[in-house]
Amino acid sequence: xxxxxxxxxxxxxxxxxxxxxxxxxxxxxxxxxxxxxxxxxxxxxxxxxxxxxxxxxxxxxxxxxxxxxxxxxxxxxxxxxxxxxxxxxxxxxxxxxxxxxxxxxxxxxxxxxxxxxxxxxxxxxxxxxxxxxxxxxxxxxxxxxxxxxxxxxxxxxxxxxxxxxxxxxxxxxxxxxxxxxxxxxxxxxxxxxxxxxxxxxxxxxxxxxxxxxxxxxxxxxx
Length: 222
What we know:
Elements: E1 6-9, H1 15-23, E2 27-30, H2 35-49, H3 60-76, E3 82-86, H4 91-100, E4 105-111, H5 116-123, H6 136-139, H7 148-155, E5 156-162, H8 164-178, H9 184-194, E6 206-208
Parallel strand pairs: 1-2, 3-4, 3-6, 4-5
């Protein structure tokens, strides 16, 4: 549409993601070492320029857009009992949980080193949490969003934590068996199943959302 965009990311962003942003034509600004640093820089930019802010997860429009994933998934796979979704800031799971509205069990999956929703559930509100680990690029904001938290509290059954090793093994398994390339954050939800952190009951129909291909970790044989 010819509309200029400035995208703020931390320096832990994968090179694949950064290059794709540049190829799409946006101006890329690398600010700080964590998502919270990039968010602060973007907010300063908005205050100085009057630009339209688009928050990565804590904005109504973002939640609505993410919720459309739930609509498409329900159309493709009606009748599932449980859906596992990875959580960073919570925009994706918040939108999806709002769409299902309790019709399907929603289970959140987070890296052990970035337990944002886990800590929020413990505290009863969004709170600061550790922000590290292999999936910090996409699943390690300082805390979950204020807008998604009431939705999560109402419609997310529980949070499952997975290790970095489990995420790495799942990335490998997705490629080896399904030829799917997933970044660590994208593989986290499936890691809960492969590692046994989430064990389906007999006859339970589960779905796992695998999202995010911002990685160059796959080596193709010539």
